[in-house]
């Protein structure tokens, strides 16, 4: 009995290791297009960190620890404009609030994992990783190895591109004039478009787009946040109206 028990424990441990490491290369490979799409965005974030007065190591640490493109750009922009710490904290909270939804959506896949797998997946969870996991047609593919491999590939790419921006800022001042921030729009377009598979989702996206353009035209504060939340409610309304399956 003891021998059989040990054999089962060994088999279980081997299965867990396979589950943890399996698919890491595939995850990194699937994430590669999204990694390349944020090249201008990362360069812009790195250069803005230097221009805002951060030291070399502070600039590197911001990308390595914060690891949130939109939050970094907003934080740096507010810091350069002299905004208070409270304003920066509230702004970043609103901008990154969608991660609560990402976590809830992925809860079914990661809730049964051990803490040593959940924590890195939580840290590496970005818009890009969420989009990649949501677009995966084979749900059994979403192993810890796949998610960590994809997230780690994006993390390393983001820090590499940010580092490039940090060193570029010294020789090419004011990179913002080259409108590298347009890559943010391109990146989110690449994330959102593959996820449009229902009329309700398409309706929500179009509603958010038109609302953000209208509010921005009239210089309404928080236009993007308002448009995003409104789009979600409108998408839910259309889904209920059409009685779409979840």
TrEMBL record:
It is a multi-pass membrane protein. The chain crosses the membrane at residues 21-44, 56-78, 85-104, 146-166, 216-239. It is found in: Cell membrane. One of its GO terms (biological process) is L-valine transmembrane transport. The keyword Transmembrane applies. It holds the Pfam family AzlC. It comes from the Bacteria. InterPro entries: Brnchd-chn_aa_trnsp_permease. Keywords: Cell membrane, Membrane, Transmembrane, Transmembrane helix, Transport. One of its GO terms (cellular component) is plasma membrane. PANTHER family: INNER MEMBRANE PROTEIN YGAZ. Belongs to the AzlC family. This is Branched-chain amino acid exporter, LIV-E family. It comes from Paraburkholderia xenovorans (strain LB400).
């Amino acid at each position: 009995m003891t021998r059989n028990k040990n054999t089962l424990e060994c088999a279980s441990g081997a299965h867990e290791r396979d589950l943890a490491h399996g698919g890491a290369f595939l995850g990194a490979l699937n994430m590669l297009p999204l990694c390349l799409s944020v090249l201008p965005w990362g360069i812009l974030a790195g250069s803005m960190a230097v221009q805002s007065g951060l030291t070399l190591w502070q600039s590197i640490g911001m990308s390595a620890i914060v690891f949130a493109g939109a939050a970094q750009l907003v934080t740096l922009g507010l810091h350069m404009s002299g905004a208070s710490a409270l304003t920066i904290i509230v702004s970043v909270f609103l901008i990154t609030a969608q991660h609560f939804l990402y976590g809830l959506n992925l809860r079914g896949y990661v809730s049964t994992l051990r803490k040593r797998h959940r924590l890195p997946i939580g840290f590496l969870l970005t818009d890009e990783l969420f989009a990649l996991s949501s677009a995966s047609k084979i749900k059994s593919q979403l192993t810890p190895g796949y998610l960590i491999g994809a997230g780690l590939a994006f993390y390393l790419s983001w820090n590499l591109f940010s580092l490039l921006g940090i060193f570029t800022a010294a020789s090419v001042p004011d990179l913002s004039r080259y409108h590298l921030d347009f890559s943010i729009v391109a990146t989110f377009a690449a994330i959102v478009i593959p996820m449009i598979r229902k009329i309700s989702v398409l309706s929500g996206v179009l509603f958010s787009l038109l609302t953000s353009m209208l509010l921005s035209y009239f210089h309404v504060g928080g236009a993007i946040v308002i448009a995003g939340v409104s789009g979600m409610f409108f998408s839910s309304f259309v889904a209920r109206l059409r009685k779409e399956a979840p």
